[in-house]
Amino acid sequence: MQTKLKIHNYILFLIGVFLLISCDSNMIFDDYKSIENHQWSSEKNISFIVFNSDTISTRNVFINIRNNKKYEFNSLFLIAKMEFPSGYKIVDTLEYEMTDPFGNWLGSGFTDIKENKLFYKENVIFSEKGDYKFSVQHATRSINDVEGIIPLQGITDVGLRIEKVKK
Questions:
Q1: Cα-flanking dihedrals φ and ψ of residue 115, to 5°?
Q2: Collapsing DSSP states into helix, strand and coil, what is residue 129?
Q3: Cβ-count burial of 66 within 10 angstroms (0-12 exposed, 13-18 middle, 19+ buried)?
Q4: CA neighbours within 13 Å on the CB side: how many for 161?
Q5: Which of 104, 117, 143, 147 is 20 to 30 A away from residue 24, measured at CA?
Q6: Taking a C-beta distance cutoff of 8 angstroms, is the pair 66, 46 a contact?
Q7: How many helices (H) and strands (E) are present in the chain, helices listed first?
C-alpha cells in the first residue's frame, strides 16, 4: 500500500512538472489547420480569426509550417493576408528557406515531420479591437511554371502563432 502511494505521488509530481514546463506565458494565439492528404492546392486559403482586445502591446506573428519528406523544394513561397476589424487589408508575398544549402531540412522535429516557425510580422501593435482575419496560401512554382504547383505535396499543417514581445 505504501509503495502504491509513493508511485501515485511520483506520477502526480511528474504531471505537475510537465504542466509547468509546457506553459507558454508569451503565447496569445496558436492554432494549426491540417492539409488534407498533405496536398495543398494553391487556391486553398488557410484562414484564422483572432480576437484582439489589447491595442497597446507589441506582438510577433509567426506562420508555422509542418512538412514531410515529400516536400520537394528548398524554399516555400506564401501569400499572407491580414485583415483588420475595420476591413483594412495588408497582403504580403513571402519566401522562406526550408533547407540549408546542402539540402538538409530546417526546422525542428525528430521524425519525418519538420516544423518551421517563420516570422510573419515582427513588433506589431494591433491598434483596433475586434476580429483580425489572417489567411495563408502557397505560391510555390517550378522554373518556367506560370500556374504554380497544383497541388503542392508534403505540407502537412499550416499554423498561426501570436506571441507577446518580451521586454
A1: -115, 130
A2: coil
A3: buried
A4: 19
A5: 104
A6: no
A7: 1, 10
The answer to whether 92 and 80 have CB atoms below 8 angstroms apart is yes
pLDDT band of residue 139 (cuts 50, 70, 90) is confident
Beta partners for 118? 63
E-state strands within the chain: 27-34, 39-40, 46-52, 58-67, 75-83, 89-97, 114-125, 130-138, 152-153, 155-164
Residue 12 cell numbers, joined: 502526480
C-alpha cell recorded at residue 20? 509547468
Reported pTM = 0.80
Query: Collapsing DSSP states into helix, strand and coil, what is residue 3?
Result: helix
Per-residue pLDDT at 62: 97
Q: 55 vs 26, 88, 89, 125, 127, CA distance in Å?
A: 16, 16, 17, 7, 5
